[in-house]
Known about the structure:
By secondary structure, the chain is of the alpha+beta class.
Amino acid sequence: MSALPETTGRKLKLFQAADPQKRWWSLDEMRFCKKCEHLFTGHDIRVTLNEDEQVQFHCPTLHCDGKWEDWQYPNLHL
Ligand SMILES: [Zn+2]
């Protein structure tokens, strides 16, 4: 697993292509992970490439395997 060279614009495009449920206008948007119950921004989401060069997205919380479907708009929780 290698870290992807990241620029903000590239990361945002990846999010827009990969997130099945929600829109991303900016990496400053907050999401709430219902698995680890943490709030984070798009900047915090870790992006890696697997062996097949496929882009993978990871919750910023260590050992949390949250995915797009677990990351909700934070206003549901405020
Ligand atoms: Zn999480």
